[in-house]
Every structure is written in C-alpha cells, then in structure tokens.
Amino acid sequence: MAAAAAPTVKPSAPAPVLIVMTSHATKGSTGEPTGFYLGEVTHPLAVFQAAGIPVEFASIQGGEPPVDGLDLKDATNVRYWNDATFRQSLRTTLKLDDVKVGRYSAVFYAGGHGAVWDFPKSPAVQRVTREVYEAGRVVGAVCHGPAALVNVKLSDGKYLVAGKQVSAFTDDEERAVKLEKVVPFLLATTLEERGAKHQPAANWTAKVVVDGRLVTGQNPQSATGTAEAVRDLILARAAKPAP
Fold first, then answer.
1. Count of CB atoms situated within 10 Å of the CB of 136
2. Where is the DJ-1/PfpI domain (predicted)?
C-alpha cells in the first residue's frame, strides 16, 4: 500500500508593508514647499502590489501629508494620482506614533526633502524602526528617506546603521539642487558620522544597497529597485514554513 503523500505546506501570506511619509511642508527658512516625493511612494507601491504584498500608509502627524515631486508626466504617478482609493489613503494616513509594528513585514521610508526635518527627530520613527528591525523584519528607505535612520539606536545602544553599508541622497546631489545650505544636515555625511559605510553612485544614477535586512536607495531613480529588494526579502521570509 502506497504511503500517503505528505501534506503540502503553503507559505504564509506576507504581512503588509508600512510606507511612511514626512509631514514637513517647507524647506527650512526659504518658505518653499516640500513634502514626500510622490514617485518614491507610487513606484514602490506598484512593486509591492504587483507581488501581492499589502501596503498601508503612515506619516509623522497622520492625515494628509504634503506632496512634492508631483510629476504627472510619469505614468506610474498618473495612474495612482487619478486613483480614488490611493488618494483617499493619502488623506487618511496613520499617525506613526499609533502604529503597532507587529502587523507589518517591513517599514519603508519614502523620501522628499521634508524627511530631513521631521524623520530624525521623531521618537515614533526611532521606535518603529528599532522594533521592526529587532523583530527580524525589513527596514527600507530611499533618497532622503534614510534620514529616518540617523538617530535610530538598537536595544544595545548602538546606531542601527553602524558598520552597515547604506545608500542615500548624496552630498553632491544636495549641492546639485542647491539645498546644501538649506537642509539641517547633509544626509550622507551624517550617516557616515553614525558609523555607516555610505556607497555613493554618480548623481541621479540608480543605486540600491542591501545589508542584511536593511535596504537603502540613493535617489528617486532608485525607488523601484529599493522596493524590489525589499519585496524579495519579504517573499523569501514568507516562503519559509511556519515553525
């Protein structure tokens, strides 16, 4: 008599990704508007949705965050900007301080210049990032999104980025957009001061760095690739049978 076939173990469905946006709306004392960079939300969102990974949105203050980089020549931006569900999701983002990280497979920090003002000083950013990372899940950030990482310390008191390879908006790119004296700090330099090993590419060149469960990208051109690397880590984890 033939032995019964072993039951097939189905991989668990991935938990949602939390995409976090800045709530800061002005570039320092210039009064010029800023916010989160639209393509650094829409392009990752497209990657996650295509992979069947749910996405939820949060911002530092909750509600509707200010948007920058409203490029409606970009087909992905247009698709989402004209989508009523997406726009409603933007209007009703979670306040990051209210987030319970246990429900997420990853946190993904979108950039936009506003991030360098409110991400580093946010206790919620520090808590959420630490808890996600120490739970064995994925932390992703792109462009100015890695500003979320500059003050995050793990439970042992060490900076999360210490000794890790990272990518972020470079000092040269900041000078190229003539904001090096407007932003409160230069992101790449500050990450290096925290012990990170910054890996720059030429201005406006896509660059993604994966160091374990930390995934970072340099600029808007890196948004899709950064999300793809996060996706791959999430799906690999979800494919492992539950203990």
1. 8
2. 39-224
Query: 193: closest CA among 176, 168, 218, 212?
Result: 168
Q: Which two tokens stand for residue 225?
A: 């690739």
Using alpha carbons only, how large is the chain's radius of gyration in Å? 18
Q: Tell me if 21 sits within 8 A of 148, measured CB to CB.
A: no
CA distances from 110 to 14, 120, 142 (A): 20, 13, 6
Angle between helix axes 223-239 and 39-50 (nearest 10 degrees) is: 30
Angle at 211 between CA 98 and CA 192, to 5 degrees: 85
Residue 231 in this model has a pLDDT that exceeds 60: yes
Q: Given a cut of 70, is residue 51 above it in pLDDT?
A: yes
CB half-sphere exposure, 29, CA atoms < 13 A: 3
Q: What tokens does 4 get?
A: 């019964």
Q: Collapse the DSSP code of 186 into the 3-class scheme (helix H, G, I; strand E, B; otherwise coil) and give the result.
A: coil
SS3 content of the chain, % helix, strand, coil (to 5): 35, 20, 45
Burial of 50 (C-beta count, 10 Å sphere; 0-12/13-18/19+): exposed
C-alpha–C-alpha distance, residues 25 and 35, integer Å = 5
At CA 207, angle to CA 204 and CA 208, rounded to 5?
145
Point out the residues that are catalytic. 143-144, 174
Single pTM value for the model: 0.94
Backbone phi, psi, residue 47, to 5°: -65, -50
